[in-house]
What does this fold into?
Amino acid sequence: MNFYSTNHSAPQVSFKEAVLHGMPPDNGLYLPLSIPKIPADLLNDLPDLNFQELALEISKLWLKEDIDEKWLKKIVYEAIDFDATLHKVKENTFSLELYHGPTYAFKDFGARFMARLLSHFVRKESNETVILVATSGDTGSAVAQGFYKIPGIYVVLLYPGGKVSKLQEKQITTIGGNVTALEVDGTFDDCQMLVKQAFLDEDLNDIMHLTSANSINFARLLPQSFYYIYAYAQLKQYEKPIVFSIPSGNFGNMCGALLAKKMGIPIHHLIAATNANNIVPHYLDSGKFEPRPSLKTISNAMDVGNPSNFPRILELYGNKYENVIKDIHGSAYSDHITKKAILKIFKETHYLMCPHSAIGYLGLHDYLLGRENEFTGVFVSTAHPAKFSNEINKFLDYEIAFPHGLKSVLNKKKVSVKMNSDYDDFKKFLLKASWRKK
Ligand SMILES: *Cc1c(COP(=O)(O)O)cnc(C)c1O
It folds into this structure.
């Protein structure tokens, strides 16, 4: 399985190199030269497999030449150790809940799978592997949690002190083990600058193997196809065309669905649902891709003004607008409409959605309007509503039940290393870090 760059001026690489480097040297994005098709007999048997078995069968199509089956099974079963569940909200409308992992958001799928693949591929390296992650809140904790207890890998998570929510800070600073939280006296941009400078520092890179594990790594996309395939297998019995509505920011989740479709899963239509950052819906309407600075909304994990996976989507459609719009439909929603939808669905069905998932719901609702019985509709629920209880409780007077894992995080003691935003101090910290004393 070889990979090429969407900018077409970098050498082709193996799956291993695509995972280790993350990004090709020409600043494009890696995509596979060909996408494996699910063989007809496997496609038939999918409804009989549990989620882990299904994830392994799909992984084998991609990785059987690169990883021995015994190892691959261990990687997949450890990474995908929680379920993706379908909840019927009403007739022909299902919520695909992707928030039953350790950080209660769908990024756990990508982060856990990437962590184990990376660890497998670097296990013969002589230098320690250090993952540097700058985070403004959510993504970082999924990545750090994904690498928790992975042998030979150390994670340094930088976050801007006082600028993340209480719950986010607890999720960042209570992991422990091989994960160190650095509380930087500065902004998210300062955190990112420190990380960037470290990657360019040749002395440091001679001593330790620094990796970014960033969100454009292909290893994060592949596991995001598993749950679409699994949902299809469960819903096939209804014998209606399936549409998925995906609340999107950087469009990594959408790329997972596109992989599922290209592997041969019959998905009738995909809905790209966004908040006010409507760059992709605008493109789908007009053919014009016009990135701009992001706007702040209540679905803040989707506040993206320049969706990083957009070049992958274009490339998968041969860079032809008329092909993209055959498969993907777009719609965008304001905070006001999002809040109204959360309230309405809660009142009607007692089902509570986080603001991101509510945008997925709205995208589906509008698509199905007047033809509800023609399709099986699925909206993707990307985070547990309790994670956004601060926001939701401003307009809904209801005590949201916290799942056990979130409650226990809140009760744990914060452990962080305070740091200013000076690069020399950051470098000293890395050179003296406790894991180096061995
Ligand atoms: C990251 C995230 C999204 C957006 O996913 P993309 O792959 O960036 O499109 C949506 N909802 C939640 C809760 C997220 O954390």
